[in-house]
Amino acid sequence: MKFSSWLLKRYLEWQNELGKRKSVTDFAAWLGASQPVVSKYLNGKGEPGEDNAYLFYLKYGEEVYEILDMEPPDFLLRYVQASWHLLPERAKEEIKKIVKKSLDERGRNTMSEEEGK
Description:
About 70% of the residues lie in helices and about 0% in strands. By secondary structure, it is mainly α. It folds into two domains: about 5-70, Orthogonal Bundle (434 Repressor (Amino-terminal Domain)); about 75-115, no CATH class.
């Protein structure tokens, strides 16, 4: 199934659940996406990348990734990313040290010295 067909089906189901016709703008707002982007997807003029796929995931679950033939993201990483701005600087520094040490041990560290500071 193409993503546009899948999304159209979800849009119609959403209207049916509400018991009335609603605009694409309303649907987009409910999804947390912009109306132009949702319209583009409904018209088959593209598919969501990782960030927009995640918005659809929040409403529809892992089915979104199956339809898009994408690997679901690491949800722990998403949690850390979403929470990063709430962490004190000391905690951020500790996380960076742990990641750097682990990657160094595996010879996989791609962070520059300047970024690692």
